[in-house]
Amino acid sequence: MNPEDGPLPPGLYLVATPIGNARDLTLRAADILRQADILAAEDTRSLRKLMEIHGISLNGRPMIAYHDHNGAKARPRILGALKDGRSVAYASEAGTPLVSDPGYDLVGAARDAGHAVTSAPGASAVLAALTVAGLPTDRFLFAGFLPAAGGPRRAALAELAAVPATLVFYESPRRLGAMLAAAAGALGPGRPAAVARELTKRFEEVRRGTLAELAETYASEEARGEVVVLVGRGSSEKISDSDLDLSLREALRTMSVRDAADFVSRMHGMQRRKVYQRAMRLDAATREGDGDLGDDADDGPDDDG
Question: Which of 27, 66, 119, 305 shows the smallest number of beta carbons within 10 Å?
Fold first, then answer.
């Protein structure tokens, strides 16, 4: 289906909107917003502004607010429009609908009623953060927002401690320091992590470090803007020196010592210092023609601090 070929067929269209940079709206999303019979939005003011930026006129079409607080009342109106054969475009305040978004119940009700549901994919803070954080992306778990209260937050983190994947959270900037401190206690202070802030915006920033290091940073520094926290996977069992060396030798085939240490420490959820020291000794031993370190090699100084 190409929206430019004619009117939109009846159904519910889930339109991803930019998470910061207005130019991230896709051409297809713009077409759907331009041609849908009815527009629904988590935040109607944000959608109106986005449409104005891209020169998309409302042309007298109804725009329905649909959010957490009015879903039960607004849903019947949208379902009624679908039943009458209309096309309805639903947009989140930012990002992809249904990802930390109230659209889940709407989609479920539309499908139960037999209406077509179509996605116009685009921006997502989860995926944007994963691409720039430098943590493994082969497996990840999106955990949304953690509970605000300390006890429930610690319990939720404890349930995730053994998950063999990169963990992705949304967090309020006001709670970031407390969340990172709780994560360091529940998941391990040495777990590699990243804080991605204001993605796609002018002041985009990504800070990396261990959970303990980031918790210390944000204990005294106030974060601003939209925040995504990523935590690298932990190790479910102790990695033997021989397994560590095997991973390092493979990485050192194509990487510098520094990059190999970064890669392998993230892979195994280990503290970078130990891995970096072992990588330096392996590299030196290889250059000298002896690739066997043994298990009792001294830990030399870490020139990476």
Answer: 305
CA distance 161 to 188: 8
The Cβ of residue 67 has, within 10 Å, a number of other Cβ atoms equal to: 17
Query: Which strands, in side-by-side order, build the sheet including 63-65?
Result: 63-65, 38-41, 87-91, 11-15, 117-120
Structural domains in the chain plus CATH codes: 3-123 (3.40.1010.10), 126-231 (3.30.950.10), 235-305 (no CATH)
Length of the chain: 305
> pLDDT digit string (tens) for 181-196?
999 998 888 899 999 9
Give me the half-sphere count of Cα atoms (radius 13 Å) on the Cβ side of residue 78: 32
Asked if residue 197 has pLDDT above 70, the reply is yes
DSSP, collapsed to helix, strand or coil, labels residue 142 as strand
Query: Rounded CA gap, 172 and 243, in Å?
Result: 39
- Say how many CA atoms lie within 13 Å of 215 toward its Cβ: 19
**41-98 pLDDT, tens per residue?**
999 999 999 999 999 999 999 999 999 999 999 999 999 999 999 999 999 999 999 9
Distance separating alpha carbons of residues 97 and 232, to the nearest angstrom? 26
How far, in Å, CA of 61 to CA of 192, rounded? Answer: 49
Say if pTM beats, i.e. exceeds, 0.90: no
Q: Which residues contact 169 (CB under 8 A, 6 or more apart)?
A: 143, 144, 145, 146, 179, 228, 229, 230, 231
Tell me how far apart the alpha carbons of residues 305 and 302 are, in angstroms, rounded to a whole number: 6
Stronger pLDDT, 301 or 81, i.e. the higher one? 81
